[in-house]
Amino acid sequence: MLLGALAVPAAAQGLRPDVLKPGVLRVCADPYNMPASDEKGEGYENKIAELIGRVWNSKIEYAWWPVRRGYFARALNGRYCDIAITQPVKMDISAATKPYFRSAYAIVYRKDSGLHLTTLSDTAFKHLKIGVNLLDSDAENTPPAMALSSHGVVGNLEGFQAFFGETTNHPEDIINAVVDKQIDVAIVWGPTAGYFVSRSKVPLELHLVEADSVSGIPFSYSMGMATRHQDKALRDSLQTLINTHGPEIQQILKEYDIPLLPLHADSSRTGQ
Questions:
Q1: Contact between residue 171 and residue 164 where contact means Cβ atoms under 8 Å apart
Q2: How many beta carbons lie within 10 A of that of residue 95, not counting itself?
Q3: CATH class of 103-218
Q4: Which of 56, 164, 198, 201 has the fewest CB atoms within 10 Å distance of its CB?
Q5: 213-214 and 217-218 strand pairing
Q6: How would you label 136-162 residue by residue, b for 16+ Cβ within 10 Å and e otherwise?
Q7: pLDDT value of position 139
Q8: Maximum C-alpha span of the chain
């Protein structure tokens, strides 16, 4: 879900890569990726960034950069911004704090469907129209697509874009397809599923796939905040903020109905 095109977005082209600026915190954010972030400042990443700004008495400036390949390598390491609010802690491309939340992919279907799906090994999936987000046309790239393929479920997949824009391809499209009975079930990243399921016009079931992996494919991810590797003092400051303002951060996640899994006992930078 963190891969894609290489182009520098127009919103970032006007920014000059620079060193850290006193009193200003530049945040990487996707302008069309609710519930994480949007250019109106409505996402949970926006709210967490605002919390950091208040605590540090810093002005928040956004580098609006769609989540694609290059989001960390070019936006963050290229100095268009100073931090990213969420990053899987196992990624080595930038430096992450310890995780402050952990979520997983979720199975979503209508409550009136008569289905009871809690695991991808359920043979019922072979007879259902299943929505998954895809990075390209081969259906072998996101965890749900790859895991279903390993269970022999391929021909009945309905692909939805994993990258979003202002006028087309929205994060909620896959959930709306379940609501409108265009598909029977969707397998969606937990924060996206939780936010839009809770706001659905019809009752939906949501079941997190709680296993760390399915068929050897990671399905749950521990998320921290990210800085450049060389900005160790900034990363450590973020860690201190997470430690001292953890309840406020958790309250923000709760307000967005983010389905959470317990952090592992060793909630270190191992990504567990």
A1: yes
A2: 23
A3: alpha beta
A4: 201
A5: antiparallel
A6: eeebebbbbbbbbeebebeeebbbbbb
A7: 46
A8: 58
